[in-house]
Amino acid sequence: MSVNQNVWVERYRPEGMDDIIGHEQIKDRMKEFIGDPEMPNLLFAGPQGVGKTAMIQAFCREKYESNWRGNMLEMNASDERGIDTVREKIKGFARTGAVDSDFKIIFLDEADQLTNDAQPALRRVMEDYSDVTRFVLSCNYPNQIIDPLQSRCAPFYFNRLDTSDVQKLIVRVLTGEGIEFDQDTVEKLAKEADGDGRKAINMLQVAVDLDAKQLREEWADVQVSPVDKNLISEIVDMALTGELDDAMAKLDSEVIKQGVNHQMLAKQFLYQIKRRPEIPADARVKMVDKVAEVDYRVMYGANPQIQFHSLIADLHVARHLSIPSYREANE
Fold first, then answer.
1. Residue 137 has what DSSP assignment?
2. Do 129 and 193 belong together in one domain?
3. ∠ CA 78-84-90 to the nearest 5 degrees?
4. Cα angle vertex 202, ends 300, 176, to 5°?
5. Is 183 part of any domain?
6. Domain for residue 249, yes or no?
7. Nearest-angstrom CA–CA distance, 108 and 81
8. Co-location of 74 and 219 in the same domain
């Protein structure tokens, strides 16, 4: 068995379109493209782990069958992102004809990481070889792809998988491996994955006792970082009333040091802010903006403790400083 086959994410990668869970409308449209010689270039946009790569690989397997690897070039643009890659590898593959098909496909994953020089060069290649090659660009942030490239692609937007779909994915893997499981643990893992199918399978593989062929609840709990909504509510109340030192100390000792998921923590702060009708509208606007800023900074590597301490301080400031003109306009 290959190394890839030991990794469940690869072992259970969809073979065909019908193996893909979720994204039913996109899947139906892609099926229609299988026999369509006039398929346009495509742009797949959405968060990581929701099935963008799986979708195009399954599509190519069905369209090209045994020739699918020869008719598809897959590249990660975050690794090879410069203009030389476009001029040499991409152009070299794009100019040759497909094997027993109308066109071949170049799939650029994380295309939003292409440099400012590479993107215009890619546009020209897309134009020059449109008769023999179709491009599928995959990205997390479509706004980082230049408009001339976006306008040459039909966009498909991938949402996070529903929790129910993630559960189906987990059960498929467990059944395929012959693993005993209880539904509560499956639901716990599915919820923690937050719509990321790849994350769900990786977490699952760690939580399975292969010797006993059993999904272990205690091993799953190690990976789950629950955010206690009552605790966050208490911290928000302390911040609003000015007990900043106590709020920060509680955040440190009972939340951050417990290893919670920082995105889930930001979502819980947002929920607690939105559910308090006593917070004036202008203050609420500033608080929500601050939560978004903290979430963004932590995602890109900022220190979580500093960022969430800053959020606590800003909650207090926003609550007690108003904008008269804002209130007058909304009265």
1. E
2. no
3. 75
4. 155
5. yes
6. yes
7. 10
8. no
Same structural domain for residues 117 and 62? Answer: yes
8 Å CB contact between 105 and 73: yes
Cα–Cα distance measured from residue 215 to residue 175, given in angstroms and rounded to the nearest whole number = 11
- Residues 292, 308, single domain; the answer is yes
> 203-237 in b/e burial notation, b at 16+ Cβ within 10 A?
bbbebbeeeeebbeeebbeebbeebeeeebbbbbe
Distance CA 33, CA 27 (A): 10
Q: In this structure, which amino acid lies at residue 37?
A: P
Of 123, 140, 157, the domain-final residue: 157
Shared domain for 114 and 145, answered yes or no, is yes
Q: What is the dihedral of CA 268, 270, 271, 274, to 10 degrees?
A: 160
Q: Give yes or no: residues 33 and 111 share one domain.
A: yes
Average the pLDDT over 8-32 and give the result. 94
- Cα–Cα distance, 299 to 267 (Å, whole number): 13
Confidence of residue 113 (pLDDT cuts 50, 70, 90): confident
- For the residues 116-133, what does the mean pLDDT come to? 91
Residues found in the chain:
331
Are 214 and 230 in contact, with CB atoms under 8 Å apart? no
CATH code (residue 207): 1.10.8.60
- Whole-number pLDDT of residue 323: 58
CATH number at residue 298: 1.20.272.10
Please give the residue range of the domain that contains residue 189. Answer: 163-223
What is the arrangement of strands in the sheet containing 72-76, beginning at the earlier edge strand? 72-76, 104-109, 133-139, 41-45, 153-157
Ramachandran region of residue 151, left (φ > 0), alpha (ψ -120 to 50) or beta? alpha
In a 13 Å sphere around the CA of 179, the CA atoms on its Cβ side amount to 24
Q: What is the CA radius of gyration of the chain?
A: 24
φ/ψ of 46, rounded to 5, equals 160, 170
